[in-house]
Amino acid sequence: MYTPDLYKNENPEEIRTFLKENSFGILINQTNGKLCATHIPIELELNAEGKEILQGHISKLNPQAEGFAANDQVLAVFTGPHSYISSSWYDHENVPTWNYIAVHVYGKIKIVDYETSVEQLKKLVDKYEVNSENPVRVEDLSAKTMREARGIFGFEIEIDEIQATKKLSQNRDDHNYKNIIKELEKTENPQSIAVAEEMSKCRK
């Protein structure tokens, strides 16, 4: 991912938090000579050795999985809030741009066994059911329903490299920076307001 030094995020804790809060990602690999991508939840977890990995699952009917055996190299892309930035918000002439936060994770993928896949499903469901009035638990599902789990491949990704970008108008002086935040807040667009919130955290 092309990232000028000014916008690189090299704070491991920030990146870890971002991945946990923005875990619906895009899994990309090469299958039969073509690039393939699937939009799925990909969770940051610790393996048995205490090393951080990514884990998730895809359908066995998804042809993307055919490529894992031939080439285990994958890219997982995660995106956060983003917004158009109008150059009319500056006190000088310039070009419009886009502010955004994104993380690319490169690694090696492997398919896990059925029992491990089910454990992954339990963690995933528990995470997203935590605020449900009547939370679903994988442990409570019938044998008939759980047969559907036979139709997925659970996977783990051993992380080789993480590239993180946080492009939030760091190249602007305080006056213009604060004005960008103010204008973003006026938009009433949730994405723009989220960018304004992130900018406010970066520069008080």
Descriptive overview:
The chain is α+β, with helices and mostly antiparallel strands and 204 residues long. Helices cover 29% and strands 35% of the residues. The protein contains 6 helices and 7 strands. It has helices spanning 12-21, 67-70, 114-129, 143-146, 174-186, 190-202, and strands at residues 24-31, 34-41, 43-46, 52-59, 73-85, 97-111, 152-167. A hairpin with a 5-residue loop joins strand 3 (43-46) and strand 4 (52-59). The longest helix is centred in the middle third of the chain and has 16 residues, at 114-129. It is elongated, with a radius of gyration of 20 Å. The model has no long low-confidence stretch (mean pLDDT 95). It comes from Flavobacterium chungbukense.
